[in-house]
Write a structure and sequence with these properties.
- The chain is built from seven helices and 13 strands.
- The protein is an alpha+beta fold.
- Helix 5 runs parallel beside helix 6 (194-206).
- The model has no long low-confidence stretch (mean pLDDT 93).
- The chain is globular.
- It folds into two domains: 3-132, Fructose-1,6-Bisphosphatase, Chain A, domain 1 (2-Layer Sandwich); 145-232, 3-Layer(aba) Sandwich (D-Maltodextrin-Binding Protein, domain 2).
- The chain is 31% helix and 27% strand.
- Strand 8 (125-128) and strand 9 form a beta hairpin.
Length: 240
């Protein structure tokens, strides 16, 4: 286990202890998105720990550094992914962080506290609660898939006649880790926020899966077959 990974596991697990019964929820915008006091507290804690240990790395994070761009050496932070689930007592939410060196992701940690699932990966592979994990081997007409983001039904409508096993978990941390651990076969995220897909895609890569990224769509799949099915039926693919 790399030193980067040891550090991030410690940071993420300790960040989860900041959550208590004093929950405060407010609207983040006029589109139904929510933010809680724990989103801010956890992000502050992780940022402070990273800045102490990695003073020369930049940070891209959801609440305080969302406008920052990818740099050669940086971290992505999502303090509570699935905040609406979290705020409503639904256990499908998580804390996710990734470390990027030389423009390549080298470490990812995703913790789903209510499910007691700690996922992590570095150059040595990917693990769930210290046990190696891998993607499943189901074909594109059998595996479960999930798609999140605006316009998702444009893709689902085309895929549904081939595969009806679509599910919605409303949390990228859940979506990508469940691909990495073989629970589902594909996770697709329509959006541009690095903190939503970078950690999970790295986990899937390290468990034998395949990924695809364009400006607006980010996919992690158990196989090229399933990946191609989404790509061929997506209106968000880059042309040329």
């Amino acid at each position: 286990m790399s030193e980067d990974l040891k550090f991030l596991i410690d940071v993420v697990k300790n960040a989860s202890f900041l959550i208590n019964d004093e929950l405060e929820v407010k609207a983040k915008d006029d589109k139904g998105d929510l933010v809680t006091n724990f989103d801010y507290a956890i992000e502050n804690y992780i940022i402070e720990r990273i800045q102490e240990e990695y003073p020369n790395f930049s940070i891209i994070s959801e609440e305080y550094n969302s406008k920052n761009e990818l740099t050669e050496n940086c971290f992505t932070i999502d303090p509570i992914d699935g905040t609406i689930n979290f705020a409503n007592g639904i256990p499908l939410w998580g804390i996710q962080v990734a470390c990027i060196r030389n423009f390549k992701t080298c470490v990812a940690v995703i913790y789903l506290p209510k499910l007691n699932e700690l996922y992590y990966a570095d150059e040595n592979g990917a693990f769930l609660n210290d046990k190696p994990i891998s993607v499943n081997k189901l074909g594109a007409n059998k595996g479960i898939y999930t798609i999140e983001g605006p316009g998702k039904f444009l893709i689902i409508d085309k895929i549904f006649p081939i595969n009806k096993n679509v599910r919605f978990y409303w949390c990228s941390a859940v979506n990508f880790t469940w691909v990495a651990s073989g629970k589902i076969s594909v996770a697709c995220y329509i959006g541009e926020n690095l903190w939503d897909y970078v950690p999970g895609q790295y986990l899937v890569e390290k468990t034998g899966g395949v990924i695809y990224n364009s400006k607006k769509i980010h996919i992690a799949a158990n196989s090229e077959e399933f990946l191609d099915l989404l790509k061929e039926n997506s209106p968000f693919m880059e042309k040329g």
